[in-house]
Amino acid sequence: MRIFALFLIFIIPQFLFAQYNPVIIGVEQGLSQSAVRSIAQDSEGFLWIATWDGLNRYDGHTFVNYNHNPGSKSSLSNNNLIHLTFDGTDRPWVTAISGEINLLNKRTNTFSLLRDKQSKPLTANYNGFPVNFDDAHMVFLSPSGVILTRTSDLVSTKLIEVKKNEFTNMNGKVLAVFHTEKDLLLVNNLRKVTKIPLEFRIIFTSTLKNDVVLMLSSTGELYEFNTIKLELKRVTKLLASNAPLSFTGYEIHTDRRGIVRIATSEGLFSLDREKRIFQELTPGEEKEKVRINGQVYAISEDYIGNIWVGTYSGLIKMEKTGGVFYNYPDGDNPGINPQVDRITSMLPLSDSKCLTGTTHGFYTLDEKSGRFRKHQNILPGFDEVLVYKLLRDNKGNILAGTKKGLLKLEFTGDNLKAKVIRFSGSPEKEEWINRVTSITEGDDGVLWVGTINGLIKYSPGSGEQTIYNFDADFGNEGDTYILSLYFDDGILWVGTNSEGLLRINTSDMTHTRFSTYGKGAQKLSNDKIMAIHKDKTGRIWLATMGGGINILELNSINVKIISTSDGLANNSVYGILEDKPGNIWVSTNKGLSRIDSHTLKPRNYTHSDGLVSNGYNQFSYLKGRDGKFYFGGSGGITVFDPEKMIPNPVKPKVALTDFRIFNNPSLERIINKEVELDYDENFLSFEMAALNFEDPAYNEYQWKLEGLTDQWVHAGKRRTVDVSNIAPGSYQLIVKAANREGVWSEETLLAKIEVIPPFWKTAWFAILATLLMLSLVVFISVITVRRKMKREIEELEREKMILMERNKTRDRIARDLHDDLASTVSGAGLYMQSATSVLGEDEEAAMTMIKKSASLLQEAEQAMRDIVWSVSPEYDSIENLVLRIRLLTRELCEAAGISFEFSKSGEFSLMLRDEIRRNLYLSTKEAVMNAVKHSGGNKIVVTIDSSSDAISIMVRDNGTGFRMETKAEKLGGNGLKNIRKRCDEIGAKAEITSTEGTGTTVLIDYKIKN
């Protein structure tokens, strides 16, 4: 092929670059376009990628894309980008293919163009991209010369060129280097530009590092120029033959270990510190399991040490690893299909070879070539036998447990031969007793053989065999089905297929069983025991099929369980191996897990870390003589040195990737990590990311919201923090993140949150409310005092009025007693005296006077009752007034022999003051007495109507009547006047109507007052 015609001059050792696990990231993962032209990392840890279709920000989980919008002046000027870098304020400077320099405001996600004083866009030459001059300035090469730009206000100045000898005399320090086709341009701290002519055509220069700049020529030569000594020297030539006319370079990068990488149109070249060359990525070829299509454009290194490569076909992450996994088969002619002949067991041989048992016979792996060789004709009928277990005993004999019996294997050169050892049993069980699933060696060379139908103690020397069965009252095998064995100091540990774990004392064959039916802390999580291992501290580790790892502590009583909930890759575990520091490695259905023996925290490895596959096989695990680990899976065998799998000790950075209020994107509201919220913006969601760019599935997070709680909340792998209904106040969201090695970051402030209280909870409102409250208290106090004084005055006035009423009542009673009662009694007394004086002389006259005296005494009695009734409070209701009027009317009418009618209607439960009640009664009494004495009629009608606000009393007779204008005073005497007078005293109306021959009607109306 054309590329290999231009191959390498020197080859550096493969292991130098094998410490990077390449992963390709493309459009499928969210990259806006596959052609990656430039890569840079900001201070927060975000990775920024310039492509032919816009700018991308990557947090290890998702991409945020920035593109040109024809209708917006705040978007990119062009989607075709060729370079990006960051200034001292962490602002991205993005150069488009047209040379325009776009500056991104990361808070508002808006772009602006770098412009001159006339507001025209400044442009950079191709390969004259902006670089940092110092903390406050950027410098780039434009068509008009070298431009220096102040980052604070973007004021730009063109620098002056000087001659070479003037530069040396000034003794300035070079801070930036650019090139034209055949000149170097050195920019020093005195802001002078010196042109250094060269004899070859430059296609790319590196950034200045340690006063040295690297240059790539059009012929593929790499040069080094020292800016202190002004010395130029050739380093090496990348290509073995002349470079094609299309050859060009795009970036030169030196990593922290001193390895130089060069991105070119012919692939990615690397130089170690001894200047030896290795072509890491070649267009059109598959290297490190990464296929690229086209040129390599960009190289960058993140703070973890991962190398990022931008190519025409995508972004490649050369993930830094602490070691390397070697996978077999490897090559174009593997000699095995591990998905058909599944690898079930392994045994190391000499000369980097490994004997391998499979589901269809025996193979030998040559680790140097990466190929497998199938063994044929080892024994009739055994070429395709299922091999469960391989063991080398203390005498060096190789034993194999197979589906057809125990085999003793021997090598003659590279040829394998076998001898079968058959075990005797009952005819119906002999086939099962010879299905050997596990073998281990005990004391004195005794073999303990696990079968599908029991445990066999076998002595190779004598051939003596003893079969043991340890049936349980659970499980489904009937006889002991053994999967795994482990012998240690007279104790045989036996793992069964469905009946748990047996601990057998081989001196007397007594046993103890551990199972899912155990009690308390002795209970296992699963009864299918795939592998058994005793660690350096004496703990027994059990691999179970579905129950994860079970650990029997030193007292063999308590069982500790490690499962996926604790971070284990998968709960179906097949093999267990222990490295020198005591870490436990286990194979599962989803890769390998390394478990820290102290913390019991797993660290998982998957296919993305370089494993042959994620799924591993039963019985297929081995620790080699040199300490290497072998695990067999569906894709073949993974081999590695556990001592070289060094954890990544770099603490990850944590950054805020999204912020939402009521699920609405609001990240732009956070300015300098501060956000101010209204009191009703109380449903918040923060999203964070550990920017270590390892497999994000293994990152873990903790957070706390200071001001609400000082306790850390362990969020596991959840990257979001949801907060709702927080009270007004000041808060700080503090987070931590751990990488897959369990290394935690520093505490990181993601956001200061200020929740503004509603106006009624502010200080000024509290002060105002306090003043208003004090004013209200004073006002209420004044009102209260005034009301109290008013009540006291009113009370005094009431007492005065009561006293006046009492005096009026006393006066009235006295007046009534004097006017009515005293005069009446006095008249009766006079009649009695007169009767006494004529008694015996004129008996008739005496009797007349006595009768008049008796009549007056009756009137006095009635007057007394009227006075008592009028002042008694128990008669204050209208009902009692009506009853009194009715009794009065009946007495007067019956005494006079006159008939009467009485009727009432309405509400009678209302109460009347004694003065009102008395005057209404006396007025009515006056009207009835006038009718009885003076009307001359034979019938009187009294009608009373009462409501909630009025009472009406009518007295009507059928007497002779009178003419109101002539006889009013004569008929009735003072009676009619008394009626009007009494009614006027209480505010009642008295209406008297009479006509001759039709009788008289007295109508009294009183409006009841509240």
Question: Would you write up a description of this structure?
Answer:
The chain is of the alpha+beta class and 1010 residues long. 18% of the residues lie in helices and 40% in strands. The chain has a 5-stranded mixed β-sheet, with no helix packed on it. Helix 5 (763-838) packs antiparallel against helix 6 and helix 6 packs antiparallel against helix 8. The chain is elongated.
Number of helices: 10
**Proportion of residues in β-strands:** 35-45%
Largest sheet: 5 strands, mixed
Structural class: alpha+beta
End-to-end distance, in Å?
121 Å
Report the strand count: 72
Tell me, rounded to a whole number, the average pLDDT.
Answer: 86
What is this entry, summarized?
The chain is an alpha+beta fold and 1010 residues long.
Tags for this model:
1010 residues; alpha+beta; 10 helices; 72 strands; 18% helix; disordered N terminus
Strand and helix map with partners:
Layout: H1 2-5, H2 15-18, E1 20-25, E2 36-41, E3 47-51, E4 54-58, E5 63-66, E6 81-86, E7 92-96, E8 101-105, E9 110-113, E10 131-134, E11 137-142, E12 145-150, E13 156-158, E14 160-162, H3 164-170, E15 174-179, E16 183-188, E17 192-197, E18 202-205, E19 212-217, E20 221-226, E21 231-237, E22 249-254, E23 260-264, E24 267-271, E25 277-281, E26 286-287, E27 290-291, E28 296-301, E29 307-311, E30 314-320, E31 326-328, E32 343-348, E33 353-358, E34 361-366, E35 371-374, E36 387-392, E37 398-402, E38 405-412, E39 415-421, H4 430-433, E40 436-441, E41 447-451, E42 454-458, E43 465-468, E44 482-488, E45 491-496, E46 501-505, E47 510-514, E48 529-534, E49 540-544, E50 549-552, E51 559-562, E52 573-578, E53 584-588, E54 591-595, E55 602-605, E56 616-623, E57 629-633, E58 636-640, E59 654-661, E60 664-665, E61 674-678, E62 683-690, E63 700-706, E64 713-716, E65 720-724, E66 729-738, E67 748-756, H5 763-838, H6 843-871, H7 878-896, E68 899-906, H8 914-934, E69 939-946, E70 950-957, H9 964-967, H10 975-986, ...
Helix pairs in contact: 5-6, 6-8, 7-8, 8-10
